[in-house]
Amino acid sequence: MIGIIKKPIQKEKVLSQAQLISFLDTIDNQLFQDLAIIQFFCASRFGETAGIQVKNIDLENKKLLIKETVIEDQSRRFLELKLFPKNGHSRAVSVGDGMFQDAITRRLMAPECMNGFLFTQNGHPLSYRSVQYHYEKALKKVGLYPDFSGTHFLRYTMATESRRLMNSLDAAQAVTGHHSVKLAEHYAKLPSPLQAQTISTVGDNLRLSW
Q: Were both Cys, which of 3, 27, 103, 170 would link to 138 (CB 3.0–4.6 Å)?
């Protein structure tokens, strides 16, 4: 008997601005809505966002450092905090005004913000499964699931919005950290002016539409 090989389902990667607003607005838990906002503006992977440390946030100078990342076991439970991101280089992110800064401020003031992590639940770092549940619950409510699932679409969406609004591929690279080692080392030191301008522009545009 010859088996039938099913083609893998192609997942969408980039939300339109209207879809992004609907998704964020539909997350009914403030913790996970703040996570999605911060993940979007940092253009970061889940583990990098979940691993953000309070000590690496400097709101006075409007920047945070993506330095650590959460590592999970095969059951997607927290295993350890790795001291560097996937590409091996930390990077600074400019914190613009508006919803990005508001989300960070809420987390810093939240009772569950403890143990050095910006994001915790019941005293523990966030698990991918809990995040996936809340993200996909919102995606289902707005009719975007299963075309969109997981968490990585926020990174793709921020990169696309950055390139669209700034009309610059360099702007997308500045916010995601997808560049050569030489540039990665440069951006890990301080947020670039282009990155700060890009995050501010995307934030202003999103705020006007939300």
A: 27
Distance CA 175, CA 48 (A): 14
In whole angstroms, what is the distance from residue 43 CA to residue 136 CA?
A: 19
Cis status of the peptide bond prior to 111, with omega within 30 of 0? no
**What is the CATH code for 17-198?**
1.10.443.10
Q: List the chain pLDDT tens, one digit each, 210 residues.
A: 555 665 555 677 899 999 999 999 999 999 999 999 999 999 999 999 999 999 999 999 999 999 999 999 998 888 999 988 877 788 899 998 899 999 999 999 988 776 799 999 988 999 999 999 999 999 999 999 999 999 999 998 998 999 899 988 888 888 888 655 344 334 345 677 888 999 999 999 998 888
Rounded distance, CA 174 to CA 188, Å?
Answer: 11
**pTM attached to this predicted model:** 0.89
